[in-house]
Amino acid sequence: MYSIKQVSERLDIPAVTIRAWENRYNVVAPNRTEGGHRLYSEKDVETLKWIKTQVHEKNMKISDAVRLLQESPPASATSTSLNNKYDELKAQLYKALVNLDTQEANQIADLAFSLYDYEEVFHHILVQVLYKVGDEWENGVISVAQEHFASQFIINRCTQFLRILPVNPALPKVMAFCPEGEQHQIGLMVFSLFLKKKGNDVIYLGPNTPLEGLQIC
C-alpha cells in the first residue's frame, strides 16, 4: 500500500490533483488508516497512471477519461487475482526489511494484520518474505546483517502472538524446540502458533536446544 505522497512522487501527479480526481470523479477509493490517512493499492496506482496518460498525453478531458474508464476499464486497472492479493504487501515488507527500516516494516505488518487473518499473514506474507530473504542471502544479493535483521523481525512478530493467544488449561502443555545444532526456527514458530491457537500452552525454547538441558523441565 502507498501513501498519497508516495503515489504523487511515483506518478509525478500533484497530491492536490489526486485528491480532486478522487473526490470529484471517484477515480479511486483508497483505504484509510485509523488516523484517516489514504492508502493506495497497486490497482489504484495503475488506475491513476492510466487517467494521467489519457489527460496529459492524449489531451482528453478528465470527465471523458473517467467515463471511458467506467465503460471499459483497462486491463492494468482490473483487480488482481486471489493468488496475487498478498504480493504488494510482501514486496513492500521485503523492501523495508532489506533497508533495515524497522518503523516502515512494522507499519506494513500492522496493515497486513488489519486486512487479513493472522494465519493468512504468517503463511502468505511473513513466511514467504522470510523464504525470499533466505534465497537472496544464499545468492549473495543481500548481506548477513540484512538476513539476520529480517529473520529477527519476523520471529519477533510471531512471538507477540505466542504471548497473547489464550490458553485452554484442559489441554496439555507442549514444549517446542529445535534440536542441538538446528538454528532455523521459523517452521517451529509457525507450528507453535498453530498449537497455541488450538489452546495448548506452548513452552517455546527456540533453536539449538541440547537435550541435556531439558531434564529439569
TrEMBL record:
Record has Cell division as a keyword: no
Record domain HTH merR-type: where: 1-71
Keyword set, alphabetical order: DNA-binding, Transcription, Transcription regulation
Keyword Nucleus recorded: no
InterPro entries per UniProt: Cbl-bd_cap, Cobalamin-bd_sf, DNA-bd_dom_put_sf, MerR-type_HTH_dom, MerR_fam, Meth_synthase_dom
GO function terms (MF aspect): cobalamin binding; DNA binding; DNA-binding transcription factor activity; metal ion binding
Name the record gives this protein: Transcriptional regulator
Organism of derivation: Mesobacillus boroniphilus JCM 21738
The organism's taxonomic lineage, starting at the top: Bacteria, Bacillati, Bacillota, Bacilli, Bacillales
